[in-house]
Amino acid sequence: MILTVTLNTALDLTYRVRSLRPHTSHRVSEVVERPGGKGVNVARVLAALGHEVTVTGFTGGGTGRAVRDRLAGVPGLTDALLPVAGATRRTVAVVDERSGDTTQLNEPGPQIDPAEWGTFLDRYEELLPGVSVVALCGSLPPGVPVGAYANLVRAARAHGVFVLLDTSGEPLRRGVAARPDLIKPNIDELAELTGSHEPLRATQDARRRGAHAVVASLGAEGLLAVAPEGRWQAVPPAPAHGNPTGAGDSAVAGLLSGLVEKLPWPDRLARAVALSTATVRAATAGEFDRAAYEELLTRVSVTAA
Amino acid sequence: MILTVTLNTALDLTYRVRSLRPHTSHRVSEVVERPGGKGVNVARVLAALGHEVTVTGFTGGGTGRAVRDRLAGVPGLTDALLPVAGATRRTVAVVDERSGDTTQLNEPGPQIDPAEWGTFLDRYEELLPGVSVVALCGSLPPGVPVGAYANLVRAARAHGVFVLLDTSGEPLRRGVAARPDLIKPNIDELAELTGSHEPLRATQDARRRGAHAVVASLGAEGLLAVAPEGRWQAVPPAPAHGNPTGAGDSAVAGLLSGLVEKLPWPDRLARAVALSTATVRAATAGEFDRAAYEELLTRVSVTAA
Predict the structure, then answer these.
(1) What angle do CA A285, A106, A65 make, to 5 degrees?
(2) Phi/psi of residue A28, nearest 5 degrees
(3) Which of A24, A249, A282, B202 has the fewest CB atoms within 10 Å, measured from its CB?
(4) Which range (A2-11, B61-70, B237-246) has the least confidence?
(5) Ranges for the Carbohydrate kinase PfkB domain (chains A, B) (predicted)?
(6) SS3 for B96?
(7) Would you call B159 helix, strand, or coil by DSSP?
């Protein structure tokens, strides 16, 4: 079973407007509500691929109830989210109808108190024995210690559970030092971690800092993987146009589904790139277009790097 | 007892950001959640002034639950809102920290089906015998007939209940023809109704169309009242700086509280202008600054027009 951890879940709102003009009033022509936060997105894609997946982390308030109500309808997905006193944040993506450009507004997460964090650690330890893979995803809400992911990486390793870490900044720096099996930074996150903007150099440096394997996402140029087994670059057949929301989370789902199905690295990477590209192309932010995914899967180029 | 009707209630969110820049991502530094919709705002100000007030209209979904939870804590306010299948809309006001300028995003309201509208009409008829004044406020959600306010005005008059109408466009045009006791349009709404941008001419024309009395809001120049008892203009001591959200609703609350307390017209107008100005000056959108209100009350100039 795969476990995804989302400490800062979200209710993701997408608003369609004619054109966003600051300091004026806008009628929103369409509202789409989705459960969000990176680990939740990863879990939904894994469930859509037919995997059994459990989500944990924090939710609270009316927004948290909306997240859980929507997850209850996803086949294959088990909700092990913990209730907290604070309210789950909202994110608002305002999409201009004409250009398709998106303006993002992200609420801060709820304050997590030390007792709530302690309860989470206990619950996480209870879940680990039933798990083969855990994905630790996204930002930390206020009140969670900055070394939280380092703790969660160590606990997973102590149980022999494969652990992927997908975060940024100081939580990533500390988490990497705890030796996760895989990290999936984008170029900016990798540069912040290593000081280098050169993908291969930065990826190798991230491994020296503790990551067993690194899959760096290079945007339109696909993924660069550096692992003990080898180095590959996986590139989509053509640059994708659309909404990049959730594309990185779909890539994580592709990597993990390929891992539990014991696919070789090149096949895992092809799946990750195809899913990621099919997410950019989907009409709704964060969803993936299944027909596009299946068609792309045969056309991703994977070469030794 | 005063009844306010809000067919299109809202959960009003105020987001504080450094500066809104289209097509970029923003961290929201502060989120304020308030129950909203014009009639709800009027009721909250009336309750703050010590009046017993009942709110009715529609709410639904998690957002509707949030609205009702917050109204439950208001002393003197009775919740007679009807549940509907659709979800109460959100409005998002994005305030730039530096300039104080506001960008508004308004979700559409929920679809109201004919059975829900019929249930509302029954409920409204049940409430009227216990009411001395009713305020019909704001836009109509999808599915409510455009002549809705005309019906509600006629029902109130049939029960001998004083009826104020504060809306715009075709619902205002039809509502005015049903002969409400008072309307409170702003200059744009009045121009849309009458074709005239000249305040006194337009106000007199609105009376000929059926409104017993008209209080036109002239922005920084205060209020112009034309009633069978006379004509007055009420002007604040100085132009108010701040957030105009809810200023018109505070003016309505001032007029109605003065009416039920049997104050003469000039005193009602002074109260309306002082409340409205104290709302613009308040730190939180839609709240009023009580100290500013009491100080302004003695300084509003009311003259025969």
Answers:
(1) 75
(2) -85, 120
(3) A24
(4) B237-246
(5) 11-285
(6) strand
(7) coil
- pLDDT digit string, tens, across residues A282-292: 877 678 989 99
ipTM: 0.88
Of A21, A23, A96, the CB nearest to B102: A23
* B91–chain A Cβ distance below 8 A for any pair: no
Q: Which of A69, A105, A108 sits opposite B94 (nearest CB)?
A: A105
What CATH number was assigned to the domain covering residues A2-7+37-87+110-304?
Answer: 3.40.1190.20
Strands A77-83 and A30-36: unpaired
pLDDT tens-digit map of B92-110: 999 999 888 889 999 999 9
A70 and chain B in contact, CB less than 8 A: no
Reading the block at residue A262, the tokens are 């014991």
Residue in B28, B66, B90 closest to A107 by CB = B28
> pLDDT (tens digit, 9 = 90+) per residue, A193-207?
999 999 999 999 999
Domain ranges of chain B: 2-304
CB under 8 Å to B27, separation ≥6 — which residues?
A106, A108, B17
| Residue keyed to tokens 């730190």 | B283
| Burial classification of residue A278, based on how many CB atoms lie within 10 Å of its CB (0-12 exposed, 13-18 middle, 19 or more buried) | buried
* Chain A nearest CA to B128, separation (Å): 33
* Residue B273 CA to its chain's centroid (Å): 14
Buried b (16+ CB within 10 A) or exposed e, B266-297: bbbbbbbbbbbbbbbbbeebbbbbeebbeebb
Sheet of A89-96, strands arranged across: A30-36, A10-17, A89-96, A102-106, B25-27
Q: Is A105 on the interface with B (CB under 8 A)?
A: yes
What is the model's pLDDT at position B78?
Answer: 98
Residues in B closer than 8 angstroms to A62, CB to CB, are 62-63, 65-66, 69
Which residue, among A142, A133, A138, A163, has the nearest Cα to A151 in the 3D structure? A163
pLDDT in tens, B12-37: 999 999 999 999 999 999 999 999 99
Task: Calculate the CA dihedral of residues A214, A298, A287, A171 and round it to 10 degrees.
Answer: 0
pLDDT digits (tens, 9 = 90+) for A133-160: 999 999 999 999 999 999 999 999 999 9
Res. B242 pLDDT band, cuts 50 70 90: confident
Domain B2-304: state its class.
alpha beta
